[in-house]
Amino acid sequence: MPSDSLIDGSSEPPVVPFAGLRRNARALAGGFLLLLVIGVVVPDLAPPPTQPPAVDLLRGRVVAFLPPGDDVTAPDVQIEIMSGPQRGQTIDGYLQGPSGQEDLPRYEVGDEVIVNASLEPDSVFISVADLYRVPALGLLLGVFAVAVTVVGGWRGVRSLIALALTLAVVVKIVVPLILAGWDPAWLAILAATAVTIATFLLTEGARPQTVAAAAGTFAALALTAILAVGFDALARFTTLRGSEDASYLQAIGITDIDLGGLLLAAIIFGALGILDDVTVTQAAVVSELHDANPSLRGLPLAARAMNVGRSHIAATVNTLVLAYVGASLPLLVLFAAGRQDPVLIASTEAVAVEVVRAIVGSIGIVAAVPLTTAIAVLLVDRRLPFLPVERGLARGWED
């Protein structure tokens, strides 16, 4: 009777046809159900505005450009309003660039645009603020989804559902609760924990290596949060943490938000994305090494897995630092143009905040590799009572 055999002569349980497809179907159904609950069942958690916004953002279309006249304050464009109470009306307005910049996009007749509308009786003002770029962004998102699906197969599809779930949690739950006055740091930790469990189950399934990856992520996140709190206090940053966005929150009257906690939450979420990659990969390395040689376990297994982990650390730490450098590159160029002492520039709050974010996140990533490796090695060959027993499913069917 034919049977599958390993290198050491031991036999594999028979492959169960379509079992991987059933697992994928369950994962996708669970992901869609969670998205439905967050999108439909979870109510609007944001507090009501204390005052109406001074300016509404509307969708519009450029109908015509008005000829210039002697009056420089006269309107220079006609706009058809496509959303809001004024939908269908054609109103004269003014051309502006993003955030009021003088550098204008290449507006053309027929372009869909974002309109700033102040319709108070004593101060009516309509202006074209920017181009409406949702179709282009939607196309790019579609290309991304196709690429992930073609290369990643079923696991790629599950990762797209997990990505949508993460964004839904942040937009529908985390941001509204921060606006409602919840502590951003604790909220980030709880949300990151819930998102990590859900995404790992969706993408990796219920396995011992998933438990190891989740546990390693939690431990590294806890270390990241502790270091962020400690060095935030040691650096004695101001309330705004050098952020223009934070000062804008204060300017529009939102004073209930803990801006210091907001920085810590940003560090936690910034590190989480790469931590997930590091811990999942490291847990998979341990599992694959043990599957290839079942006699390999304990310290020898951990040592071999760490050889791979060290290479991963070198790449991911550099990736995280480059991500923060890329976000603050215009600021660095601005400081460098002044020919000032680089050490003094690094000491300024706007730069030091980014340094703390990058280094604290990198320390969390470095710690995640040995933590996840140790947990994964401990779970090798262990049958956890809350996990299903794997029965030799063919990877081709599963992924």
Brief sketch in words of this structure:
The chain contains ten helices and five strands. The chain is of the alpha+beta class and 399 residues long. A five-stranded mixed β-barrel has the order 1-2-3-5-4.
Describe this structure in words.
The chain has 399 residues and is α+β, with helices and mostly antiparallel strands. 60% of the residues lie in helices and 10% in strands. The chain is built from ten helices and five strands, in the order H-E-E-E-E-E-H-H-H-H-H-H-H-H-H. It has a five-stranded mixed beta barrel. Strand 2 and strand 3 form a beta hairpin. It is globular. The N terminus and C terminus are likely disordered.
Would you spell out the secondary-structure blueprint of this structure?
Blueprint: H1 19-41, E1 56-65, E2 77-81, E3 90-95, E4 112-120, E5 123-131, H2 134-179, H3 184-204, H4 208-235, H5 244-251, H6 259-292, H7 298-337, H8 342-347, H9 349-379, H10 395-398
Parallel strand pairs: 3-5
Antiparallel strand pairs: 1-2, 1-4, 2-3, 4-5
